[in-house]
Amino acid sequence: MRRIIYSVILILIFSILTFADYRKIDPLFFAYIARDTIGERIDFIPFTSSKSIFFSDEKSVSGGFIHYDEVLKKNSFGEIEVIVKGSFSSASLYMTDMVSITDSIFTGFADYLDILQMSEDGAIKFIEMSKPMFQSADSGAYYTRISTMNSYGFTGKNVILGYIDDGFSPDEFCFYKDGESSFSSVWNQHYSRLPSPAGFSYGEELDSEDLKIYHIEDFTGHGTSILSLLSGRSGVEGIVNEATVIGVSCQPTMKGVMDGIKYIEKKGVMLNRPFAVILPMNHFWGTHDGRGLLEEAINFIFKGTAQKRGISVPAGNLGNMHLHAFSEIESFDTLSFPANNPIVISQCVKNYTLDIDVIITGNVYVRFILKDQSGVWKSSWIDIENTRYGYCENSLSYIGFGFNDSLSQLHVALQHENYSLLGIEFSSKEVLSSVECFVSQGGYFLESSVYPSMITGDYEKTIASPALASQAISSSAYVSRRTSGSNLVSPDTLFHILGWSGRAGNGFIKPDLYSPGKFVFAYGKGMWGDVSDDTVSSFQGTSYASAFTGAALIQLLQSDTFLDVSKLYSQLKNGADIVPVELSRENYSPSYGFLNVYNSLKSQTVGTQTNTVSVFSIGDSAVGIRLNDENNFIERIEKNSKSNSIIIKENHFAIDKKPDLGKNIYVLTIKDRFGNTKTSAESFFFESKNSNLPVLCFDITGRITEKKTFKQGVLFEKQGKKVKKIVKF
């Protein structure tokens, strides 16, 4: 009977698939259900000369990989988590447990038939699968001046700290002092002991008293440690521990995260307070151009100005794994084997599904090559323009693929037993074609010394979502000289930066900032971190970088609750310590620099809209600042570096006779004729054209240094107009 029912379902799916608009459906969906929907089967052909294709000395996979759950997340009824863009009323005909994230983006559940039928509805724009997310881990610490802000009282008072992670334990003693904590409410998506939040149909909502009674488990310790860094009151001192915490212990999926962001937004609007969301999670799925529905939802929610807010995310990529490959396709040979066509070879993590997203420019053929315990196999060439979904399989392995030509995206999923290698070979049908491949989960790219290979993968950095959202402010981490045995309050003065070649579409430059990310001390719990003492552990990861940047957002919102998102982010970037303009940011660091929230605070311009300030260079040795307003005058001017060389003339003109090469920040105190004081911060890049100046050396922040060597650091040596970078370890 079951077989009959299953056959009927398959027939229904196949009949609907004939009419389904596959351009509206995530290609991941077809890669996983190609076999079930009677997609075209591509037979495997045994290939015996394995040494001519793959390594003969395969290396066993060790630990260090993030655990991924089943990709197509389902509820107890077998319905799939989906994210849909389109009309609410139309989507409600096909989805259950819907949550409206924006005016046109909704999360919920739908089964296979509903997904296919939904794609035929003209009011539905796109259907995306809810994909797994993970706690971001990378490498990288620096002195951010957050502690300076703390000394001035900027500890988050009257600002909401929205926090989202896969598990944290609000009942831990580190969050309490005299029985009180900063928590207002927590949505725990993992359990249902108490009622769900209003507007949501799963999980439980706990207030500050409930949190003392109902335990929320944090198996890794990741979420608890980051939150203790921000909100700790005992054992560790949180850097913004007076901020009101609204937390989400979320399901580690895109849907869980999107619902969590919406929950925090609703609470923030209800309390009528500015809020910042710290989201130390990430994923690698999709086209890596910032156009996914998660990124679109973030852009919509955080672009408005009615409720002042910001969101901080990490730009991590699991350290230096080989997750990215790119190639131009020039070969047209689809007959011989092996040929000279570009190929990527991926090693699978044992017993894990391997997922790869391929972004295609032009028209290409694809061929799969598989090595598993049963041997080496190849498929025939597949014209994906004509075969948009299909599969290959043998007794141990299954390869499913789906292609969405509106996105120019191919998704390949390998499900296998034990150990496998997957090769994807490409051949072009036209002169100008290219492919860009991203490992979404379960493996990494390998280099083959005997077979033409695209790329070994990125030892530099492959950026991840949601760091590509234009309305998110993203952080990468960098390494300090501090060790886990150092004094906790010692400043990090010498450091080196990790290689980065963050790629992003549509001209987005990420990460925005570099922040502390290695040897960060916080409350220790679970498997995460290296124990320092009974309470404190040493942690690392871009998760922690996003926490420091998020804390800076909270401090700036406390200083001015009327900041909108663009002004908030602009201040953080304007205040960042950056390398001199002479050093060419394009060739070095695609970011705005290193977080310095105190400089960001000083960069606020208050009440100077009617004052025109001009900053300009004078010859080869001075910078002039002019105030073009007869009703106001300059009372005092300060510089970001200590200098007694600034002179005020006639109350409207000031001159700095000894500007620093690189970035100079001038803070002007301006008074009007009624004695009202205003401030303005102006920055100016100064580069002397005098070739007779002595050799100047810069550290990585752009500060001049007299030393020619570092125990650990990056040194820039300027000789005339040329700059030479010297890396010392």
* Shape assignment: globular
Low-confidence stretches: 56-67, 455-460, 480-508, 579-589, 693-704, 706-717, 725-729
Number of helices: 11
Report the end-to-end length measured between terminal Cα atoms. 70 Å
Please state the average pLDDT score. Answer: 78
Strand content: 25-35%
| Secondary-structure content class | alpha+beta
The helicity comes to 10-25%
Q: From the alpha-carbon coordinates, what is the Rg to the nearest angstrom? A: 28 Å
Q: What is the number of E strands? A: 43
The biggest beta sheet, please?
9 strands, mixed
What attributes does this structure have?
single chain; 729 residues; alpha+beta; 9-stranded mixed β-sheet; 16% helix; globular
Can you walk me through this structure?
With 729 residues, the protein is α+β, with helices and mostly antiparallel strands. The protein has 11 helices and 43 strands. Strand 4 (96-100) and strand 5 form a beta hairpin. Helix 1 packs parallel to helix 4 (112-119), helix 6 packs parallel to helix 9 and helix 7 (254-271) runs parallel beside helix 8 (293-301).
Would you spell out the secondary-structure blueprint of this structure?
Elements: H1 2-19, H2 27-33, E1 40-41, E2 44-46, E3 80-86, H3 88-91, E4 96-100, E5 105-110, H4 112-119, E6 124-129, E7 134-135, H5 146-151, E8 160-165, E9 183-188, E10 204-207, H6 222-231, E11 244-249, H7 254-271, E12 275-278, E13 281-282, H8 293-301, E14 309-314, E15 324-329, E16 343-348, E17 354-361, E18 364-372, E19 375-379, E20 382-383, E21 389-393, E22 397-404, E23 409-416, E24 421-428, E25 433-441, E26 443-446, E27 473-480, E28 495-496, E29 513-516, E30 518-523, E31 530-531, E32 536-540, H9 542-559, H10 565-574, H11 597-602, E33 613-618, E34 622-627, E35 632-639, E36 646-649, E37 653-656, E38 662-672, E39 677-686, E40 696-698, E41 704-705, E42 713-719, E43 722-728
Helix pairs in contact: 1-4, 6-9, 7-8
